[in-house]
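Re: Re: ligand-bound prediction request (bumping)

Still looking for help on this. To restate: I need the protein modeled with 6-phosphogluconic acid bound, output as structure tokens. Inputs repeated here so nobody has to scroll up.
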Amino acid sequence: MSVPTVLVHRDAQVLAKAVAARLITGLADAQAAKGSAHLVLTGGTIGIASLAEVAANAAHDAVEWRRLDIWWGDERFLPTGDPERNETGARRALLDHVDTDPERVHPVPGPDSGLTAEEAADRYAEELRKASRPEDHGPVPSFDILMLGLGPDAHVASLFPEMPALYDERPVVAVHGAPKPPPTRITMTLPTIQAAREVWVIAAGEEKAGAVRLALQGAGTFQVPAAGARGRVRTMFLLDRAAASKIPPDLGRPASP
Ligand SMILES: O=C(O)[C@H](O)[C@@H](O)[C@H](O)[C@H](O)COP(=O)(O)O
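Reply:
Sorry for the wait, this slipped through. Here it is.
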């Protein structure tokens, strides 16, 4: 797993714009190299704000949206269209504004599918398996970029500290009793996150500073799930100054003056 690169941005607004610019070029580069790309989205404030900045960035058409497979690292187990679903936030912020191939947008099934949360997790795992190729050497595709927000408790996706999902070997699992509402969620597990070529942890605000410090300083993943947010090729912690305020100065590199 790759050692994190930490980039610190002046504030949340600059961070969201910088993440958007990085996403556009990263996806365009991946598509130039391979003809298509896999992107894993996250929910949360800064995650969705970054997607809105992609929509607002005139360069976003450098991405061939019809040759992009879009997944979610986690989803709230709510009906399709529910405003609290991460999918709904992503569609409103970006996906409704670009020409994606509906066959390549992979929302996590909600209760309106008639599936239980466990069945929805299994269904998503099967969809991931079908999209994986022999060269991925595993049950999920080698995602080009996997975005993660960060909770104040150092959760990523819906992997909350000391919950069973952190020990689960399956690619995707249901979560019950999540401390962040809603309580029932579907989440990729750490092995699935770590299958990504690049993992980006995106965090803004003072309330995330403690979690950032723990995630960067080698804590155990059962107490600090974000410590397991590592990509095979590259790991980026994309932060604003407030979220970076508790890490040792030698760890963070200013990305903006
Ligand atoms: O379903 C969710 O809520 C997200 O997937 C979750 O992992 C989120 O990214 C973090 O909780 C950060 O959220 P904020 O950026 O809003 O603090």
